[in-house]
Write a structure and sequence with these properties.
The protein contains five helices and seven strands. It is of the alpha/beta class and 171 residues long. It has one domain: Glutaredoxin, CATH 3.40.30.10. The strands form two sheets. Strands 3-5-4-6-7 form a five-stranded mixed beta sheet, with helices on both faces. A hairpin with a 2-residue loop joins strand 6 (124-129) and strand 7 (132-137). Helix 2 packs parallel to helix 4.
Length: 171
C-alpha cells in the first residue's frame, strides 16, 4: 500500500506530496521469525494488523501485557528474557499480546495509540487494564539493565494491577 503524505516544512507556501511505501518490511521475515517465536512460544498472541490490535485491546476486560518487540539487542538480551522471567510470577496479566516494530508497522502504530502520553519506543512493554494504560517500560528503561531488573519492574506492576491467578474463576 502506498501512503501519500504532505510536507509543509519545505520553506515554501505549498504542500509537496511525499510517497512512502508502507508495505515493505524493514527486516526479512526469516530473520524476525525466531524473535517473534520467543514470545509466541510462551503464550503471547501476535497482532499483525491494526484490526487484530483493536479486536484484542479495544474492549479488553482485565489486564493486557503488550510487548512492542524489536530486532535490537536490548529486546533480545533484556526485554524478551525479562518478560519471560516475569511470567513465572504467581500474578499475571489476563492477555499477552505482541507487535513487531519494523515489520508490522501499522499494527505497531495502532498498539502504540493505546499507550497515551508516551512516544513510540522499541522495544517497549505496556500493561493495560480495561483498555487503559497503567504501566509502561520504554526503551530507555530497558536498555542497559538486566533482564532480572525488568522482570522485577513487571512483577511489581502485576502485583499492583493484576488479579492473582488463584483468585480468578475457573473456566
Amino acid at each position: 500500500m502506498e501512503i501519500l503524505a504532505y510536507n509543509v516544512n519545505d520553506g515554501s507556501n505549498r504542500d509537496l506530496p511525499i510517497r512512502a511505501a508502507r508495505s515493505v518490511n524493514m527486516y526479512p521475515e526469516e530473520i524476525v521469525r525466531p524473535m517473534r517465536e520467543e514470545l509466541t512460544s510462551i503464550g503471547f498472541r501476535e497482532m499483525r494488523t491494526p484490526q487484530e490490535v483493536d479486536a484484542l485491546l479495544a474492549n479488553a476486560n482485565g489486564t493486557a501485557l503488550v510487548v512492542v518487540n524489536s530486532i535490537c539487542g536490548c529486546a533480545a538480551g533484556k526485554a524478551r528474557p525479562g518478560v519471560a522471567l516475569a511470567l513465572s510470577h504467581r500474578v499475571r496479566p489476563d492477555i499477552l499480546a505482541t507487535v513487531f516494530a519494523g515489520n508490522d508497522l501499522e499494527a505497531a502504530a495502532r498498539a502504540r495509540s493505546y499507550f497515551t502520553g508516551f512516544d513510540p519506543s522499541s522495544p517497549s512493554i505496556a500493561l493495560l487494564r480495561d483498555g487503559k494504560l497503567v504501566f509502561m517500560l520504554e526503551r530507555r528503561q530497558i536498555e542497559g539493565r538486566m533482564a532480572e531488573d525488568i522482570a522485577a519492574d513487571l512483577t511489581g506492576a502485576f502485583d499492583r494491577f493484576c488479579t492473582p491467578v488463584s483468585s480468578k474463576p475457573s473456566a
